[in-house]
Amino acid sequence: MTFKAALAMTWVVFFVCDTLVNQKFTSFVNKKFSVVHHELNHLFMNEKLEFAARLREAMTRAGYMARPSVLEREFNTRYWGAPVTLQAVSRWLNGQAIPAQDKVQVLAEWLKIEPQILRFGSQVVLSVQEHRQRWEDKLTYLERETVDAYLQLPAQQRKVVREVILTFAKVYREGEAESVTPKA
User: Fold this and answer.
1) Which CATH superfamily, name and number, covers 3-125?
2) 178 touches 170 (CB < 8 A)
3) Which of 45, 50, 142, 159 stands the most exposed, by the fewest C-beta atoms within 10 Å?
């Protein structure tokens, strides 16, 4: 076999191997992306369905039938933008879409419900309130004073202070983990 033939054969083998590896890699990435995309889509679909359930419940509580024609009529009489179609409100009620925030605001005012509860549910609002309450209950006057001073620092200095605090916290957690771990 001549040098040129060997070189050509090597190039063909390399090309075939490279193509196979790329195909397997592409297949692998597509499968993983498909799973992630499916999970994200599933989560977002649940969010849409949950919004639809909250919207139907709010309409019922306000004394309206949870029907697209009722929603279209009542919404469009209150909304100053372009009127929404029957198809659009049907998608809201059937869990296929979530309206934009300006429309959620109009729906909430009409149905006498907090916009964040209509959009995200009461659990999210309660969770935020509980977190805020824990924050307020745990801080002493000196800690609040420290936080206020921190917030008045320029961004670059806040970054340094944050890194120092996170380093101290990490060392502390690691020290606690070592004291809990039994020694052999």
Assistant:
1) lambda repressor-like DNA-binding domains (1.10.260.40)
2) no
3) 142
Please state the pTM of the whole predicted model. 0.52
Contact 115, 62 (CB under 8 A): no
CA distance 6 to 10: 6
CA 8, chain centre distance (Å): 53
- Residue located via tokens 């009409």: 110
Report d(CA 140, CA 156) in Å as an integer: 26
Residues of the chain with pLDDT under 70: 1-45, 135, 177, 179-184
Largest CA-CA distance found in the chain, in angstroms, rounded: 89
Q: What is the dihedral of CA 21, 26, 28, 31, to 10 degrees?
A: -160
